[in-house]
Design goal:
Blueprint lengths: L1 H10 L21 H16 L5 E3 L7 H17 L4 E7 L5 E10 L6 E5 L6 E5 H6 L12 E7 L1
Antiparallel strand pairs: 1-6, 2-3, 2-6, 3-4, 4-5
């Protein structure tokens, strides 16, 4: 799987680095939104029977927390229809960001949680909706970094 991920990343303009090179991060090494969208549509789309379209969370008018609420409502709708949702997160206290996969949702209101998987480590954890809405969520269970939801694939 790692070889396939490396090949897909590099075929679409990214640069793969070993997981052990944490200090290098993946901010400028990963894919930008347009190549990510293209890669998902070429490789995941045929298997999922879904066309992916990137949506920036901070586009449009309104306060940032309201934009995140709207995005989470749309993500919830997709998850409940059986479609996993790739999401982009910008780190709060360091440069760059990371792509995660949301695959389930449970609960309602402020106690609602989204199941988030880190494709880099394979770890999954439930992340509370209200933490994502504040722009300060811990998306990875073993890391200390917090991030802000900034993109999702519809």
């Amino acid at each position: 799987i790692a070889k396939e991920q490396k090949q897909l990343l590099e075929d679409h303009g990214g640069k793969a680095v070993p997981v052990t090179q944490e200090s290098k991060g993946s901010g400028s090494l990963g894919l930008d939104t347009a190549p990510m969208e293209k890669m998902l549509n070429e490789h995941a789309g045929p298997a999922t029977n879904h066309t992916y379209k990137a949506t920036e969370v901070d586009s449009g008018i309104g306060a940032p927390d309201m934009k995140r609420k709207v995005a989470l409502n749309k993500i919830e709708e997709r998850l409940k229809s059986g479609v996993d949702v790739p999401v982009g997160v910008k780190w709060n206290n360091q440069p760059g960001g990371h792509i995660f996969l949301m695959s389930d949702v449970r609960g309602r209101g402020p106690s609602q949680e989204f199941l988030v998987t880190n494709p880099k480590t394979g770890e999954s954890s439930w992340v509370k909706r209200h933490e994502i809405e504040t722009g300060n969520a811990k998306f990875s269970p073993t890391g200390d970094a917090t991030g802000d939801l900034n993109m999702y694939m519809q």
